[in-house]
Amino acid sequence: MPSAVLIFASALFLAAAAPLSAPDLEKGWKIYVAACQVCHGEKGDGQTFVANVLNPPPRNFTSPASKKELTLERMLRSVTRGRPGTAMMPWKENLTAGEIRAAVAFIRREFMELRE
């Protein structure tokens, strides 16, 4: 079991290190719309109907605090494993490591305005 975790973590790290192409960003956008937008909103600001019923509310990716607190590694881990105490579910059973990377990269570039 520990070796499986190590292999998965290594795959995430290697995927995170590769530069993004336009198709990767488009893939990330499609995944965001299908899996993330319902909670995090069309603009990534967490302003959705769902936000009114979740405690804590979904993360606002456009806030200065998010830009400061959310490292690439933390975001990959949060999407992969979920966030205890929140409605953020783990996506590792529904998305591949590459799909998770694409969605996170889209969020970081488009909503957090980070150029990595």
Structure description:
There is one protein chain. The protein has 116 residues and is mainly alpha-helical. The protein is built from five helices and no strands. It has helices spanning 2-17, 22-40, 64-69, 72-81, 97-111. α2 (22-40) crosses α5 (97-111). Residues 4-17 have low confidence and may be disordered.
What is the global morphology? globular
> Count of helices?
5
Structural class comes to mainly alpha
Q: What's the CATH class, please?
A: Mainly Alpha
Keywords:
116 residues; mainly alpha; Cytochrome Bc1 Complex, Chain D, domain 2; 5 helices; globular
Q: What's this model, at a glance?
A:
This protein has 116 residues and is an all-alpha fold. The protein has one domain: Cytochrome c-like domain (Cytochrome Bc1 Complex, Chain D, domain 2), CATH 1.10.760. The protein has helices at residues 2-17, 22-40, 64-69, 72-81, 97-111.
Topology readout:
Elements: H1 2-17, H2 22-40, H3 64-69, H4 72-81, H5 97-111
Helix pairs in contact: 2-5, 4-5
